[in-house]
């Protein structure tokens, strides 16, 4: 009897302990802080580094804007506003908000002018994905168009940082991937990542497209490249990189046997549909097949000139002159330093033998930027999507100890408030 009683008490005690131990598992709301899924945990460090670094730079930018106060005297459409944060929705941001609010009104209106601009600027120059997301978020959250634009950009920037981490960590390890995400936060031109601009959304799509190709997820790569084609015209370089990687996969018997044919072919066929479809729609809506390119060339003075404009800028800057269109001294000098660093960064990247999709995407991006007439001071922003250039610097910094990295990122974060934010929005035209 005593033994039975003891067994009953013991069993009850063990059962109570088991119930207490298993209780929180049966009630997920009772466990705090919530446990991250195993697959999400590696992204915590890079996203934390990215977020803290970006927030620091934005804080310095706000302090500089408030100290100077020049934005209060500028047109709200061109770098001005009542509050410092209004600056984040000026220039291209104004156009995106107009599309989000009013939609498109395609037209090709000729101007009585013989200068750089012979066609009236029109909102169809701005691709539809980003403003569509702004409108969708605004209607579903009530944030308003400005708040929704910032939210879309900020969320997209974290998705982009995660994609950069995923790509770089595959090639150089998790520590290098984390550092690469932090470097993207302080890259020249990074000020538009948390502004009403489409760069963060594009880099998010580009990074994960490259990752999908690297891991042979061809259907995903094709769909992401298709989506990127609805976001920016520069998606052409991403689409081309996906197509080239797919062709090489099909051309090699061993990879063709391993990965099949349908996946690469699907990616090749689907990837360009978004870009070509939108350009075709602009042509159909305006009654001129090449309307989009005409608008870019004659409305914004953006067109591929095989590097003639870039060479002209470099000659002028070398002798201290500003005798070229769209001259802005401070942004131009910073962009010049970046251009001079490109051969070194490319060589270091190639030395690490990255996959073909990264090489093709990066080199095509650089050629497109340097071969196009556009505001030279914005070269920093236009090269922001070329994230594979961060591979070698991230791998090198990964060998440094934590105190050294802390000093580096603290300094870079503070400085980025000026060179990556203030210079672009207030000393140039982003």
UniProtKB/TrEMBL annotation:
Residues covered by region (Disordered): 1-31
Biochemical pathway: Glycolipid biosynthesis; glycosylphosphatidylinositol-anchor biosynthesis
Regions crossing the membrane: 43-68, 143-161, 167-187, 194-214, 234-251, 263-284, 333-350, 357-376, 382-398, 405-425
Keyword Repressor in annotation: no
Locations listed in the record: Endoplasmic reticulum membrane
Topology term for the membrane: Multi-pass membrane protein
Sorted UniProt keywords: Endoplasmic reticulum, Glycosyltransferase, GPI-anchor biosynthesis, Membrane, Transferase, Transmembrane, Transmembrane helix
Record carries keyword Transmembrane: yes
Broad class of where this protein is predominantly found: endoplasmic reticulum
Compositionally biased spans, kind Basic and acidic residues: 17-28
PANTHER family from the UniProt entry: GPI MANNOSYLTRANSFERASE 2
UniProt name for this protein: Glycosyltransferase RgtA/B/C/D-like domain-containing protein
């Amino acid at each position: 009897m005593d033994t039975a009683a003891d067994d009953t008490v013991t069993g009850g005690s063990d059962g109570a302990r088991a119930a207490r131990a298993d209780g929180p598992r049966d009630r997920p709301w009772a466990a705090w802080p919530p446990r991250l899924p195993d697959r999400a945990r590696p992204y915590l460090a890079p996203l934390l580094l990215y977020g803290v670094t970006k927030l620091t730079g934005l804080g310095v930018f706000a302090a500089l804007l408030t100290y100077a106060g020049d934005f209060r005297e500028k047109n709200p459409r061109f770098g001005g506003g009542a509050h410092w944060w209004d600056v984040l929705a000026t220039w291209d941001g104004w156009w995106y908000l107009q599309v989000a609010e009013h939609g498109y009104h395609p037209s090709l209106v000729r101007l009585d002018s013989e200068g750089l601009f012979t066609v009236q600027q029109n909102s169809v120059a701005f691709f539809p994905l980003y403003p569509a997301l702004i409108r969708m978020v605004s209607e579903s959250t009530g944030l308003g168009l400005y708040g929704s634009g910032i939210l879309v950009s900020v969320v997209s920037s974290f998705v982009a940082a995660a994609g950069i981490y995923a790509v770089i960590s595959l090639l150089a390890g998790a520590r290098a991937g984390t550092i690469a995400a932090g470097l993207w936060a302080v890259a020249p031109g990074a000020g538009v990542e948390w502004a009403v601009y489409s760069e963060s959304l594009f880099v998010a799509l580009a990074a994960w497209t490259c990752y999908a190709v690297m891991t042979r997820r061809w259907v995903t790569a094709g769909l992401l490249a298709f989506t990127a084609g609805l976001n920016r015209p520069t998606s052409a370089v991403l689409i081309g990189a996906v197509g080239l990687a797919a062709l090489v996969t099909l051309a090699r018997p061993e990879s063709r046997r391993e990965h099949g044919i349908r996946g690469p072919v699907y990616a090749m066929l689907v990837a360009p549909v978004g870009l070509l479809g939108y350009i075709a729609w602009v042509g159909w809506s305006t009654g001129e097949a090449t309307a989009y390119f005409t608008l870019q060339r004659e409305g914004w003075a953006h067109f591929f000139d095989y590097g003639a404009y870039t060479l002209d800028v470099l000659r002028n800057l070398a002798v201290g002159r500003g005798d070229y269109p769209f001259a802005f001294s401070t942004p131009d000098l910073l962009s010049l330093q970046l251009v001079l660093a490109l051969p070194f960064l490319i060589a270091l990247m190639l030395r690490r033998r990255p996959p073909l999709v990264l090489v093709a995407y990066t080199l095509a991006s650089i050629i497109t930027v340097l071969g196009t007439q556009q505001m030279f001071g914005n070269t920093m922003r236009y090269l922001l999507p070329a994230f594979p250039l961060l591979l070698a610097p991230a791998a090198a910094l990964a060998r440094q100890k934590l105190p050294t990295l802390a000093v580096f990122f603290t300094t870079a974060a503070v400085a980025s408030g000026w060179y990556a934010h203030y210079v672009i929005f207030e000393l140039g035209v982003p």
